[in-house]
């Protein structure tokens, strides 16, 4: 469906951050049983199929450069122009 939509998907996966929090705070909850690697791969697959990108930061400090990269990719992909009717 992502491929057929014709719209790129830029996925921001927080699996590494969530996994670290789950490991530190709760060793018995459902988050501990989650297959984090599988979730990360599925995000990458969706983004790739759509023509977008998947990002999985190691920590919140990495978010700023990710947002910059997303912005640059969107600038290249879309160009807004105006033509006067005169």
Descriptive key words:
5 helices; mainly alpha; two-stranded parallel sheet; 7% strand; 86 residues; single chain
Tell me about this structure.
There is one protein chain. The chain is mainly alpha-helical. The protein has one domain. Helix content is 57%, strand content 7%. It has five helices and two strands, in the order H-E-H-H-H-E-H. The protein has helices spanning 2-5, 15-25, 30-33, 36-50, 63-77; strands at residues 10-12, 53-55. Strands 1-2 form a two-stranded parallel sheet. The longest helix has 15 residues, at 36-50. The N and C termini lie far apart (42 Å).
Q: Estimate percent helicity.
A: 55-70%
How many distinct helices?
5
- Overall number of domains: 1
Q: Which structural class do the helices and strands define?
A: mainly alpha
In terms of per-residue confidence, which ranges show pLDDT below 50 for 5 or more consecutive residues?
none
Taking Cα atoms only, what radius of gyration do you get, to the nearest Å?
17 Å
Mean pLDDT across residues: 83
Sheet with the most strands, sense and barrel status: 2 strands, parallel
Shape annotation:
elongated
The first-to-last residue Cα distance is 42 Å
* Spatial order of the strands forming the largest sheet: 1-2
Topology, number of strands: 2
Strand content: 5-15%
